[in-house]
Amino acid sequence: MEKKVFEVSLDKNPRIKMHYTPGHFCTIFYHTNYYLDVSTMKACALTARDVARQLAVPYVSSAIVDTIVCMENTKVIGAFLAQELLQEGTAVMNSGGEINVVTPMNSFDGRYLFYDNELEWIENKSVLLLTASVIGGRTLNSVIECVSYYSGTIAGVSSLFLYDDTVTSHKINSLFTADDLPGYQVFPSSDCDMCKVGQKLDAIISSEGYKKI
User: Fold this and answer.
1) Is the CB of residue 69 less than 8 Å from the CB of residue 106?
2) Residue ranges of the alpha helices (H) in 102-206?
3) Segment holding 83, helix H or strand E
4) In whole angstroms, what is the distance from residue 26 CA to residue 210 CA?
5) CA angle, residues 180, 30, 25, in degrees to nearest 5
6) Number of domain units in the chain
7) 128: burial class by Cβ within 10 Å (0-12, 13-18, 19+)?
8) Which of 65, 105, 135, 152 has a Cα at 20 to 30 A from 32?
9) Under 8 Å CB-to-CB from 98, ≥6 apart: which residues?
């Protein structure tokens, strides 16, 4: 994808950066004019540790967390996040406890499930959800439904990028939002302004990355 890549840094920690590329991109649910690349935050250990420290702030002294459920390849961040929430301190809610870090299984019909051997970490537990992005809320709400089905309680929701905070009744704590990306737009697949003017697609995108068309 031979296009110029831009970056935006987090004010509280400039080492944390999100890269974005303008163009015409699609998922199975929507079209957008930016490809957002958060792979460094998810895969680079040092950056993931910094990300986890920022994401831990709303919960360290205010939330009991038994389990972190990681979506969209955020398990490296999830492990560091658990470490942050378990640090020693009289004001640290989870100090001296244990936190399990799991990833739900995506079933054939788009719903999410947990393996039987992991259910003990969800049932009647306080669960923190971690995801790479919240755009339309389909993935997030499906996992919330799954946790609720197994009698888990949502302790919080954290995301690297947040487009729409109205997709769920739960407060979403995020590092970056659409306000950090001037001109960022999302369109329904069936009603895309770029398609209407004949702009060709540049790539198919997902939480894994992109594939040029």
Assistant:
1) no
2) 138-149, 193-196
3) helix 75-85
4) 10
5) 70
6) 1
7) buried
8) 105
9) 66, 86
Q: What is the pLDDT of residues 11-63, one digit of tens each?
A: 999 999 999 999 999 998 899 999 999 999 999 999 999 999 999 999 999 99
Closest CA to 16 of 58, 52, 56: 52
The answer to whether the pTM exceeds 0.85 is yes
Q: Indicate the angle between helix axes 75-85 and 45-56, nearest 10 degrees.
A: 50
Any domain includes 187: yes
Tokens of 4: 């110029």
Amino acid at 200: K
Give Cβ neighbours of residue 40 (< 8 Å, ≥ 6 apart).
17, 19, 47
Q: What is the tens place of the pLDDT at every residue in 58-70?
A: 999 999 999 999 9
In a domain, 1, yes or no: no
Strands 13-26 and 203-206: parallel
Sequence-distant (6+) residues with CB within 8 A of 185 are: 32, 33, 34, 193
**The CATH number of the domain where 91 resides is what?**
3.40.50.2020
49 vs 46: CA distance, rounded Å: 5
Q: Which domain holds residue 13?
A: 6-212
